[in-house]
Amino acid sequence: MDTAHDLPSIRSLHGHRAPPCAIVIFGASGDLTKRLLMPALYNLARVRRLADGFAVIGIDRIAWSEEDFRAHFADGVRSFVSDTGENGGVAEAFDPDSWDFLASRMTHIDGDVTDPEIYTRLAKELKEVERQYETRGNVIFYLAVAPSLFGTVVERLAEAGLTRESEGQWRRVIIEKPFGNDLASARALDARILKLLPEAQIYRMDHFLGKETVQNIMVLRFANGIFEPLWNRDHIDHVQITVAETVGVERRAAFYEATGAMRDMVPNHVFQLLSLTAMEPPNSFGADAVRTEKDKVLEAVMPLMGEEARRNVVRGQYTAGIVRGHPVAAYRDENGVAKDSMTETYIAMQLAIDNWRWAGVPFYLRTGKAMTRRTTEIAIEFKRVPFALFRNTPVEALTPNVLAMQIQPDEGTSLQFSAKKPGPEISVGGVRMDFKYRDYFHTEPSTGYETLVYDCMIGDATLFQRADSVEAGWAVVQPVLDLWKSDGGVPLEFYPAGTAGPDAAEGLLAKSGRRWRPIA
Ligand code: BG6
Fold it and tell me: Is the pTM of this model over 0.85?
């Protein structure tokens, strides 16, 4: 059989080095920079995607020596390349040349990012790296700071004239998630930033879009002739989207207590999966064409008002349990969590998309922490055949056709269908065809940030969030957040850590005779 090994991948079509530029990281001493961003830059250096004219300027409050600054990140990169655990790293030898390329182009500024003086120093440093490394005046400002500082940093940059583009020189700002913590704050942040910068200079990050398999949803749908004709209400019974994590709140209680599973995961990551699954074919793979179609999906989601929100949303919180053989404390017993915390660590919801393609097709979404297994999956369950020719097998007992896109881990796609069981009788059983990424492609160790940072360097915003999509995502969940705030009577359902979530979530599907796919 021909394998896909020789086919150029979507990404390799870009195949060029990025243009010369400097990347300025606000919040350089944070976890994100160490665990994801620096390993991503290292990976880009390893595959020779960074221009020789490249430099990194880190900004944070720590007075690092240049040497300590570099050593801190070398550790992060080393532990990434040797991580074969759940977090996606793959064992590969540490490549000292690639690291040296990066480390030799790193500098650091210490100070408070709210202090205008730091921007004067930054302006000087940018001139210096432009001269020394030939970054040609192109700059990415990467905001890996606390969300409450996003607006301030953009304002300070603009006041200092650092976001001004001139002939042949670009300036771009990457803003991390969470973008706002509800609809009003997301709108306010957009308004504040858009006063100073045009949309084209703003790159709102949702790291799920950097995952190969998330990008593959579009390829599966639009590069194959066989799925799209079936991709509608005539043939699809319902869709299930699951983002289950085994990790609990870990050291993020301060953030998580005020955030919860809904804000942390749904309007952003889960809705990315939803909109890529449900969108109409875009006119092209251009940033605006794709983002417009995705945005239309979110705008067509029927808002869950009042009673609807109560009936169609289940929120849960984990109690003590065992996850993958290890005891896990109850959420309320975690450090930094209130003993009577009402923060949800699990959400399940049923949504309807009110448009021509999807009318009447329920979308079931769930995401939670401290669950049985880590899995992110989109499952499309097709309608059953109208009647059974096979006397011994009633229609309801036939295996439904399910196309499951496994986003992580163990990336791949499977199709479940019915087959005749061997033997003299006609008896039908369920079977599955499985495609696993690793069987076809050599996948490089990747954090998922490589694609996104590289795309920003080449000015491709397709995989970044536009203001309208961010706001449309918040608009869908806002009535539910309002209900929780105003009505203390919305129950919090408890589930032991290491399970598939609260029993009440089963009820969401059971009322229409459906069931969640097993997570275990
Ligand atoms: C982050 C959330 O955005 O995404 C975390 O804040 C979550 O709570 C993480 O664990 C999941 O991302 P990934 O790439 O590990 O699936």
Answer: yes
